[in-house]
Structure formats: structure tokens, C-alpha cells
Amino acid sequence: MNGYLLDTHVLLWAAQEDGKLSPAARAVIERVDSKLYISAISAFELGNKYRLGELPEYSHVVENYHGIVQKLGATELPVRSSHAYYAAKAEWAHRDPFDRILAAQASLENLTLISSDTTFSELPWVSVLW
Q1: Is pLDDT of 2 > 90?
Q2: Which of 37, 42, 89, 112 could lock 8 by a disulfide, CB 3.0 to 4.6 Å apart?
Q3: Where residue 32 sits, what CATH number does that domain have?
Q4: Do the Cβ atoms of 109 and 69 come closer than 8 Å?
Q5: Comparing C-alpha atoms, which of 10, 24, 8, 3 is closest to residue 99?
Q6: How far apart are CA 20 and CA 58, in angstroms?
Q7: Strands (E), the chain
Q8: How many domains in the chain?
Q9: For the segment 92-103, what is each residue's pLDDT rounded down to a tens digit?
């Protein structure tokens, strides 16, 4: 599998605030021939944070998640046990389980992770675009 995995914040920005995207990220996301993927873990992260009151400004995105994914022309990437295991065992001090799953998926599925989060840059086994 080759393509691009959108970090959760990139999904939010692509859907609602594309001015926050880097020029390189915007170009890839807008390109018709780009293979874009959204992790199922992003749905969990968005729903959980919204429930906790952390994303009130993104209610449209959260409430229309599947439509947004479709509008972006992206494919949902399920979280498999291989992703979970890799994320759990990876030598990485970062504790955020959402980021760990995204890094594992990008690595195992040979996807470039689109993210502004610099924590991924310390991982030699993850290709990042920003």
C-alpha cells in the first residue's frame, strides 16, 4: 500500500480550516490521484475528545465524519491487531496511544504520515510530510 495517512488534526484542518495546512500537505490532499487514508483511530480520537468538550469548534466535522472522509476521497484504514501490537511494542517514549497507532499504521502499511506534529520526526521508521 502506498499513499498518505492523515493525522487527526490534519483531517480536521482539511475539512474545516485548510489555511492551517502546509502548502505541501494541501497539495497532496487536493491532488485527485493521491491515495489518502484516514485511520479508524481518528474517529475514536475525535469522538472521545468531542465528548469531553475539547473540540466544540469542530462539531460539524465530528457529526459528519463519514461524509468528510468521503468528500476528501479518502479510504478508512481499520486498526488491526498487527497495528496495535506494533504500536504497543515500539521503542518510543511518546505515550499518546492515538499517535502510537498512527505511527504503527504508517510504518506497517508503507504510508507517509501527513502531520505537523514534530514528535513523529524522531522515528526513523515513519515517513512524515508537512
Answers
A1: no
A2: 42
A3: 3.40.50.1010
A4: no
A5: 8
A6: 14
A7: 3-6, 36-39, 75-77, 111-114, 127-129
A8: 1
A9: 878 889 999 999
